[in-house]
Amino acid sequence: MSFDDAAREPDQMFSLNRDVTGELEYATKIARFSNVYHLSIHFSKNFGAERTKIFYIGLRGEWTEPHRHEVTICNYEAAANPSDHKIDQITPQTHFIS
């Protein structure tokens, strides 16, 4: 995540409250966070202090085993063009039925 990404519209924003006991929970939009593989959190401001200190961020949910998705490059043709697929080894044959 870069500072340019922080200017984009977030999937969800929270208005944070001071939590000295660590008991506050913030509900997320389930539809937006149902299959999360990467999470970036941006804190744009704090409570007026010079530094922002974050001691704990807990995430709740169900863990699922990650699946490796290979990069696939495919070209699809609505109808094959024979001039695109020149093969010298195959002799085309035509059969006529009367």
Automatic annotation (TrEMBL):
Pfam family membership, one: PITH
Record GO cellular component, one term: sperm cytoplasmic droplet
GO biological process, one term: spermatid development
Gene3D superfamilies documented for this protein: PITH domain
Ranges for domain PITH: 1-79
InterPro entries, per the entry: Galactose-bd-like_sf, PITH1-like, PITH_dom, PITH_dom_sf
Family statement: Belongs to the PITHD1 family.
The name this protein goes by in its record: PITH domain containing 1
Taxonomic source organism: Anolis carolinensis
